[in-house]
Write a structure and sequence with these properties.
The chain contains 17 helices and 16 strands. It has 470 residues and is of the alpha+beta class.
Length: 470
Amino acid sequence: MNKVADRAEKSAVINTVSLYEKHRTVYARSVTGFFDNWRKVMVIVTQALFYGLCWLEWGGRQAVLFHLVERKFHIFGMVFWPQDAIYLAVLLVISAYSLFLVTAIGGRLFCGYACPQTVYTELFMWIERRIEGDRPARMKLDAQPMSARKFRIKFTKHVIWLAIALWTGFTFVGYFSPIRELAGSVASFSLGPWETFWIFFYGGFLYLMAGFMREQVCKYMCPYARFQGVMFDPDTLIIGYDAERGEPRGARKKKAEPAAPRGDCIDCGICVQVCPTGIDIRNGLQLECIACAACIDACDEVMDKVGLPRGLIRYSTENAMSKHYGRRDIVSHLLRPRTMIYSAILFLIVAATSWSLLTRIPLRVDVLRDRSALYREGDDGRIENVFTLNVMNTDEKSHQYAIAVSGIDGIDLVGERVIEVPAASNKSTVVVAAVEDGTGAKGSNKIFFDVHAIGRDEIKVREKASFFMP
């Protein structure tokens, strides 16, 4: 029995399957060209907006400020309150449909040019190249044992990375707490606990994600790469390798005829070396591809050197590659039911939101009943109900508001009928509505509070409330 068991054990084959790919450092090679220039432009534009917009003033206050303490959002003179959360929901819907439309037309253009992960990784990689050198120099430096020179180079790089990360964290918090007050607090070492936490939290994550994680964020953490497939179709613009033209691969000299027929791909591997996620685009579209088009710039440069036409790797569609579409045919196929539906929905939502913002009345009123008693009898014998009116002035100017009540014959207000509210502020006032006994129906009666700005009749709102009679 033992011999049989030993024989069975020796004949058994044990296969170990790893569920995780072993991480290898991607040393992306620098590249120049049309798409690289556009990536640089997008880095400059997005970071100029991010770092600069919070310092811009508008009407005497920060132009864009999501003031969490005061629970007010200031966006270029418009003031939004928590009650305006519908606009946040609409903004998210617009962003989602915009992403769907861009993806259906041009693939992962957002990932390659506007995604914060890509933008900051590009920025950190540019600093790395300036300090450590291009791909061969970085690989050689990492392979060396630690020395004074290597420590100095690495230390300099990480200090600059950390400085950018902390400045980015400071800027991020500056959109939720007034940036100038925040800067004063930093200078005087009097930062509050939540500002300190978020500056270091956001800065630390940026340092980790852009400095170390890089392509791993796109490959393993970002959900966009996983569900992009449902938004792609054969007429979506993607970065593709023309296998029909490029295969079979093989080295060749400029303008020299090979001994055997070969494709245009000389198998130099530069398209792989410049890829920030380390993939080979010649293997087809992969979820790791972020559409940065670095491989296009690299391949076009190689084609120029060997005297072959550009476009071996290019922006195209699956149908265009297989059916040999021209540029006009590619453009005509971009207008298809999916993109037209996305465009129509997006246009309607943007138009409705724009109309709502343009016609938005800079006044909101919340009416709360006094819950201590449904009604009471006044000194003059009338029935009274007590209400608290919270008047929110969302304008950049102070206003006086007149308060009136209607809905029941003879109903009137007892006491103050005018309230003054400073610019971009709110103020509560207690009002008493009174009516003769027996005028209204027993129980609940519908009434309306009319509030309008004195001298600005177009600024007015009407809020419904309930008046209780015995």
